[in-house]
Amino acid sequence: MKNKDFAALWSQNLMSNYALPSITLVKGKGSIVFDADGKRYVDMLGGIATNILGHSHSAVVSAVTRQIKTLSHVSNFYSHPNAIELAQLLVRLTGDKQSRVFFAQSGAEVNEAAIKLSRKTGRTRIVAMTGSFHGRTMGSLSLTGQNSKRTSFVPLLKNVKHVPFGDVKKAKRAINSRTAMVIVEPIMGEAGVIVPPLNYLKELRQACTKNGALLVIDAVQTGIGRTGQWFGYEHSGIKPDVITVAKGLGAGLPLAAMIAVGKTSQLFEPGDHGSTFGGNPVTTAASVAAIKWIEKNKILIKCKADFRFLVSNVSSISGVSEVRGAGLLVGIALQKNISSEVAAALQAKGFLVNAANPNTIRIAPALNVSKKELNQFVKTFKEVMSDVN
Ligand SMILES: Cc1ncc(COP(=O)(O)O)c(C=O)c1O
């Protein structure tokens, strides 16, 4: 079957909540994927920041294969070693021994968990950021600061106040002694890789501490090494109260975690929250293997170097106004609103990227993407920009 056959079957059988995909991907290795017509692509989007080590990585494949042959799933009535090992790793990566982990499957779910955790403070008010993305379930959608995604689904949660991302003054005015939590992405991914001012997180931390509100870092997109740091907030020197991670955490399998830091980790009591598949032995095996591989191969350092490479080689391309982000979460801002055209032209030439907004191309490739692949991307991007300009 070819791409067009799959497209016909898709529209006959799947709901129309997504735009009809133009291609069907059938196999991949590392950052290379193939569609149903046999066309080869460099996957510069990585399942939107998810395939942290690309496709079919040997460490992940062996860990998952070993585990699925041994034990598939256990309920939350029982423990198993992989969830414990992954929780230990995550606790270590936060740098706070008091941290505790709750596992789920998706970013939306762990942000829902954060909302529930914040209710345990006895408060209900939330401050979130305009333009942010925190998921599409009713609670997480209430946090998401994009009207286009919300208007059809009102009423959402009451008591969520959105303030402009990066504006400390407006945030400080909104945070008070009745605020349960403030949720913020270290870099807004879905909005088009928007980086806040340098001291932003530090000032939010101070305002939260002063008012006794929880500071929740949504590291769903920035987490697990994506920005050259484990969670994406570390450069600010702050200690959050809650960190949510998903996407890259499962190295291509559905896995998410809410990490409660410090005394926040004691807020949930038995029976307060749960998830049948959360911390499944197979998904946590994939995650442990990927995190260990990233550590062993010093991938965080590589990500930072890759960012410098992209900034110095893409910023000067005609039609580009800015290259922003951190590590391998990169927004290429264009001088004109032609990102869809540029993304389509790149796809035709064998590179998958995302038009995050009308003038921004987002890339979030596997953290082990090679220098050769990045060079090929830069060369092709330059060709495309000269064709469309
Ligand atoms: C920062 C952020 N938070 C939450 C989510 C929601 O994650 P999920 O789609 O796994 O529910 C996303 C997804 O793009 C995200 O980028």
UniProtKB/TrEMBL annotation:
Pfam families with a match to the protein in the record: Aminotran_3
User: What keywords are assigned to this protein?
Assistant: Amino-acid biosynthesis, Aminotransferase, Pyridoxal phosphate, Transferase
Q: Does the keyword Cytoplasm apply?
A: no
GO terms under biological process: L-arginine biosynthetic process
Any GO MF annotation of the entry: pyridoxal phosphate binding
According to its record, what are the GO cellular component terms?
mitochondrion
Quote the subcellular location field of this record: Mitochondrion
Q: Does the keyword Transmembrane helix apply?
A: no
Cofactor dependence is on: pyridoxal 5'-phosphate
The residues that cross the membrane are: none
NCBIfam families noted in UniProt: argD, PRK03244.1
Under which name does UniProt file this protein?
Unannotated protein
Q: Which organism is it from?
A: freshwater metagenome
Q: Please name the taxonomic classification of the source.
A: unclassified sequences, metagenomes, ecological metagenomes
